[in-house]
Design a protein that fits this description.
Helix content is 83%, strand content 0%. It is mostly helical.
């Protein structure tokens, strides 16, 4: 979509937006609520990390077993998005959101009461199913209320704020574990989620004006229609490859910096903080520019800049393979900034291909983001085993960025005129 293209809201969105503003009093209050709801997923995922080494001794198990509290949480987050999105199309956003948050509260306090590692793993997996509710349905709520350019802007603001959650969650978890023990972590998450549940019950209106009454047949038809749409597949490919690039970097960069380059974890942490701020600045740009320039302009610029950053990294590692952390970090700052303004627009494009199935579209998109990210994060571990330079990491980052660029230019522009606005 070019700048200046019509951004009229989709059919039925005016009434939903009026209802939301009447309930919340101001769009920014709704945005604050969505940020709080969405934060539950990454907060729950990352806050337990500092306590995991202690759980080995607490339950008398090996590290691999404790790791299941993280890996199965990720798996639960991926699978639940395929379920929650279609459910919100079928029954409405509000009831599914409330049910998901309630499930999170119950599962979190079940984890608090766990007396064995098996019970803790089961509770964490159940917790993941509920904690993902805000991520997937929050995107659908935004698309219900706004045209896709404004939706991209709103998603950008939510994403910018959400970068903070995984940054501060380990700090909170570490402080609680040190002072009060691992049980305090789940008590904190449970009380926070319960407060957000009450806030949601009081403030979130139903934004899907015409929930489907056709049952699972309609859900299957919507999913099949989306998967046959080249435009949808193009936007999803951009979002998935970009997220996979980030997960790959997170999985491989610590090994490169600490093991191969013999630098401290503190130095890695400082560089990663800079990258996080670059991503947030990109989210800020999405919030400011998306409504002005349009989804496709932002995605087109984003895929080009991510490939440029990845190429800089590839050339640098070939010319100076023994350089320090700047070898991979500086190119990632470039790609991180571009990802920050591109990703919200790619998601907005995906959920706008078929607005009446925004929940299903958000679920498929989220599943692909996490699923491909899990695969490539595992892959980079094998590729770096025995490596003496950052070449494997630079190569897979470039491949993923290149695949996103190819998918967008091959699939989206040709079919852009058919995308409902």
């Amino acid at each position: 979509m070019e700048a200046g293209h019509s951004t009229s809201p989709p059919c039925g969105s005016t009434a939903a937006e009026d209802a939301a503003e009447e309930a919340t009093g101001h769009p920014w209050r709704l945005l604050a609520l969505l940020i709080a709801i969405t934060s539950i997923g990454p907060l729950s995922l990352n806050i337990l990390a500092p306590a995991m080494p202690g759980l080995i001794g607490t339950f008398g198990v090996d590290a691999g077993t404790v790791q299941l509290t993280l890996s199965l949480f990720l798996l639960g987050m991926a699978i639940s998005q395929l379920i929650l999105g279609p459910l919100s199309d079928r029954f409405g956003r509000r009831p599914v959101m409330l049910a998901g948050l309630a499930l999170t509260v119950v599962a979190t306090f079940a984890a608090l009461a766990a007396s064995s590692i098996g019970e803790l793993i089961a509770a964490r997996t159940l917790q993941a199913f509920g904690a993902t509710t805000g991520i997937v349905i929050g995107r659908a709520v935004i698309r219900d209320l706004y045209d896709r350019e404004r939706a991209a802007s709103m998603i950008g603001w939510v994403t910018m704020a959400m970068v903070v959650a995984p940054m501060i969650a380990p700090l909170i978890g570490g402080a609680l574990d040190t002072a009060l023990g691992w049980h305090a972590i789940f008590a904190f998450v449970g009380m926070f989620t319960a407060a957000v549940l009450v806030w949601t019950a009081l403030q979130l209106p139903e934004t899907r004006t015409t929930p489907s009454s056709e049952g699972l047949a309609r859900v299957r038809a919507d999913g099949a229609s989306l998967l046959r749409s080249p435009a949808f597949l193009g936007y999803v490919a951009v979002a998935a490859t970009n997220s996979a690039m980030f997960f790959t970097f997170i999985g491989g960069a610590p090994h490169v910096v600490v093991t191969i380059m013999h630098r401290t974890s503190v130095e890695f942490g400082i560089w990663f903080l800079i990258i996080s701020f670059a991503f947030m600045f990109g989210n800020f740009a999405a919030g400011r520019w998306s409504a002005r320039y349009g989804v496709d302009v932002m995605v087109r610029a984003g895929v080009a800049v991510t490939v440029f950053g990845a190429m800089v990294g590839m050339v640098w590692v070939l010319l100076q393979p023994q350089a320090g952390p700047e070898l991979i970090m500086v190119p990632q700052i470039i790609t991180g900034f571009a990802s920050g303004f591109m990703l919200p627009n790619a998601i907005a494009g995906a959920v706008s291909v078929r607005p009446q199935a925004a929940g299903t579209a958000a679920g498929i998109t989220g599943f692909m983001q996490m699923g491909l990210g899990a695969v490539t994060a595992q892959l980079i571990g094998h590729l770096l085993a025995g490596a003496t330079t950052a070449l494997p990491l630079a190569a897979i980052v470039l491949v993923l960025c290149g695949c996103g660029l190819i998918a967008f230019f091959a699939l989206v522009p040709r079919f852009r005129s058919s995308v409902p606005q």
